[in-house]
Structure formats: structure tokens, C-alpha cells
What does this fold into?
Amino acid sequence: MDDEQNPIAPASQPSYAPPAASEQPQPPLWRRRPVQIGAVALLAAVGVGVGIAVSSGSGNAQIHVRGTLQLGPLSAVATSGTAADGGACTAGQGYDDITPGTTVTIGGDHGQTLGVGPLSTGVERNVDDSLGVAAGNCVFSFDVPVAGGQSAYTVTISHRGTQTFTPAQVADGVALTLGQ
It folds into this structure.
């Protein structure tokens, strides 16, 4: 038989060849690039720290803007039954926007809104007291938590105008009057 027509190849023996580089197991990424991984971790930690500082108002603690709205005299006040000091009262005719839950908006020194809260239920005052509340008035109160650190605070109740207060005045408590 002619070898050219029917070539017989020798039996192929498996030869050992090392696996391709892409097939070799790789060490964990933190072992291959420790400096780069450390730099990424450091940047992430700094970013989280900056985010916390910004979200907490840049270090300005929360304060409470507390105050009262004194509505009176009695012609502007509707009492519940007989006039009784400390009893519930509501605003009279012409002051229908002054009710429990009326919006109290606290603003900052750049005109931004810092917080919003409600007026409380009105409490009747028929005697003069040490806080300057005159007899025959209905007193509503409010307490709105806001970020501190402002050079001025504004207080707006309903559509009745805006008053500006210093941080010292806010710390002492805001006293507003309407209908006097």
C-alpha cells in the first residue's frame, strides 16, 4: 500500500501544556491591587463623612422656635360658654384663619423655609400674667424644630405677615399679638 494514499499518523500522545493565562486562578483583587483598593476605600469614607456633615446642617444643632400668638380683646375671641381663665377659646369674626393647626412657618436668614408647624388650641386668659398676656385674650402657642445657626429667624402665621427675630429673641420665646 502506498503511504501517500493512506497515511497513518502516529497515535497522538497528549502533551502537557500549561493553561492559558486567562484560565489560571487569580488571587483576590485586594491582593493584586492593595494600594488602589485602599485609595478607593479612603475616598468613600471621606465622601460619607462629608455627606453626614452636610445633612446635619454643617454642625448647627437643632433648636426649637417656641412662641405664642395672643389674639384679643374679647371681641375677637369666641369662648366656649362662660369666660374662664385657662378654658378653650377660638378666634372670633375676622380671624377665621387663626385655628388650631394653622400653619406656622419658620424661615432663615436667606429667606429659606427652615420648618413648619401648627398652632395649638387656643387658651383663654382673663387675668394679666407675668408673661405680658393681657386679660380677655385667646392665646395660641407653637413649637417648631429647625436647624440652628441662623443670624435671623422669621415667623409667619397664616397670611398675617412675617416678623423677624434675632437668635437671642428666639431663645427667649417669640411673643406675637393680633387684634390689639
Summary: The CA atoms of residues 26 and 32 lie 9 Å apart. The radius of gyration is 38 Å. Confidence is low (pLDDT under 50) at residues 48-58. The longest helix spans residues 34-55.
